[in-house]
Design a protein that fits this description.
The chain is an alpha/beta fold. Helices cover 31% and strands 22% of the residues. Strand 23 and strand 24 form a beta hairpin. The longest helix is centred in the middle third of the chain and has 17 residues, at 197-213.
């Protein structure tokens, strides 16, 4: 199969374009100009005219929660709801459609979008219903809003202590007010009714089709462990149109995780589960990101470290000793430093080992720690769309420290690998939003003019490389994936406009026309 007469960005470097690409048995065998590729390889090949369209490597989302995204499409979706009143209206509608005694589960509310920007409380939900269990996660997944029946189910009263790594928000009389942070609501996810295996399969399959429509061909997915088994089933039935690098949350008994993965099987180039996720802190939006100095808008609060330093180190060491790889969620500058300290301690034992250390989000950095990323070969796994969501309130949280938030260009200039993703369903799954965010640092309405801390803007080519090669490198797949060059798998997309030449705002309107995985079309908007 030969694709010619196109503008093919290979992701090998910022200016590496070819016009033709030859594919055989799912692998790229040659790239170059039309005359060379057609002249040498055209005999017996299927020849496809790209009609001057832009071709990119398939996107690899380096950090998302795929099963949560699949569920959000089935549950109450409160994302981008612009006011408290409209949020309550959506909740009320869902409650009215749900039998008394059942759960109303949703995600996506964001008080920073509301006029008053105050956190809500249980009374607002109790006024809608105390005959349902209402459980609504904030958009970042680090806070939950619940009603009184849920608080009773958890046994949270005035005398209930805050769990380590979590916090119960309270009224002045010490009664819980219905907002729970991080570990304070973890138990709820074990209480709510689980979807059936058939629902898991169908919802995941639907989400994969949605990812293909967005031009995504690979993901690094932190989902519930049993979703690995769903991916295995999809592969066995020929319906896994996505490469899965599976990322499991830490358990003390790592053998059980490894045995589960082994029992479901690994598939070269398609399904692998050897990455462990650990948490250093929470999120800026919920004021649970761990900071070196208190929040500007909450002077007694430095956030919530999820574990004591020695425990975080012990968990990371335990994972690596079991031949697993580690990615640590760290958003605040103190959380990032904790993660770097962990990696530094581990690297001392065997400095030549390829650990592929990752820090997930790395949203806020103390300038003194930037060189440590480079010295320890730590990958900055970041989600550009977080920046353009948070820019409206980040300075209220952290003041002048916002200069070192989302420091993409500083990282690249320091020789640090960027791996881009979306954190879906926290942010939209569409990679075009991330590309736009990375080059403009403006929200989708174009605010602020010139960009927020524009010195951290990067080029479009750099952003695409971070979303393709960078993510493949972070997943240890760079030898066979992430760029369009001979010897790599033929994962690529054709888009409806040349995003290298159009105004940045038009990138947001760019559509994927076709998505190819192993040289086979898995999504088509039009015929090519």
């Amino acid at each position: 199969m030969i694709f010619y007469n196109g503008k093919i960005f290979t992701s090998r470097s910022g200016d590496d374009f070819v016009s033709a690409m030859a594919i055989k048995d799912g692998e790229i065998v040659a790239t170059g100009n039309d005359s060379i590729i057609l002249g040498k390889l055209a005999v017996g090949a299927v020849i496809i005219d790209l009609q001057n369209k832009l071709v990119l490597p398939g996107f690899h989302d380096a950090h998302l929660h795929f099963w949560n995204g699949a569920k959000v499409k089935q549950q109450l979706d409160l994302r981008n709801t612009p006011s408290l009143e409209k949020t309550l209206e959506k909740i009320r509608t869902k409650v009215n459609q749900t039998n008394a005694g059942d759960w109303v589960i949703g995600r996506g509310w964001d008080h920073e979008l509301w006029e008053q920007k105050n956190l809500p409380d249980k009374n607002l939900l109790d006024q809608i219903s105390t005959s349902h269990y209402i459980y609504l996660k904030r958009v970042d997944g680090h806070a939950a809003w619940v009603n009184t029946p849920v608080l009773k189910l958890l046994g949270y009263g005035a005398s209930a202590p805050d769990p380590f790594g979590g916090r119960i928000m309270r009224y002045p009389n010490n009664e819980p007010n219905g907002i729970l942070f991080d570990a304070a609501y973890d138990t709820l996810d074990k209480m709510i009714p689980k979807p059936t295996p058939d629902q898991q399969y169908e919802w995941t399959k639907q989400a994969i089709a949605f990812a293909n429509e967005m031009g995504i061909t690979s993901i690094t997915d932190n989902s519930e462990t049993d979703i690995y088994g769903v991916y295995s089933q999809l592969y066995k039935k020929g319906e896994l149109n996505l490469r899965i690098n599976f990322w499991m949350s830490y358990l003390h008994n790592l053998d059980s995780l490894k045995n589960y993965v082994e029992s479901n099987g690994t598939v070269p180039h398609y399904l692998r589960g050897d990455l462990i996720k650990l948490y250093a802190d929470g999120s800026l939006g919920s004021r649970t990101a761990y900071l070196l100095r208190p929040y500007d808008d909450d002077p007694t609060n430095v956030g919530l470290p999820q574990y004591p330093s020695e425990k975080l180190l012990a968990m990371a060491k335990h994972s690596i000793e079991n031949n697993l790889f580690v990615g640590i969620h760290a958003i605040g500058d103190a959380g990032v430093r904790e993660a770097l300290n962990v990696y530094e301690s581990i690297a001392r034992v065997d400095p030549d080992r390829d650990y592929r250390f990752r820090i997930e989000h790395a949203q806020m950095i103390d300038p003194e720690d930037i060189d440590r990323f480079q010295k320890l070969n730590v990958i900055a796994s970041m989600q550009p769309s977080h920046c353009i969501t948070d820019l409206h309130w980040a300075e209220k949280r952290i003041g002048e420290r916002a200069r070192y938030a989302y420091t993409w260009k500083t990282f690249l200039d320091s020789g640090i690998t960027l791996a881009f993703g979306t954190d879906w369903p926290v942010e939209p799954l569409n990679p075009m939003v991330g590309l736009y965010a990375a080059i403009t640092r403006q929200d989708t309405a174009g605010y602020p003019e010139g960009g927020w801390y524009p010195q951290e803007q990067i080029t479009l080519a750099q952003a695409i490389i971070a979303y393709t090669y960078g993510s493949a490198y972070a997943a240890r797949n760079e030898d066979w994936c992430g760029t369009l060059e001979p010897g790599k798998v033929a994962d690529f997309i054709i888009v409806d406009r040349d995003i290298f030449t159009i105004p940045p705002a038009e990138i947001l309107r760019t559509k994927v026309l076709s998505t190819y995985l192993d040289g086979k079309k898995v999504f088509s908007r039009t015929t090519h």
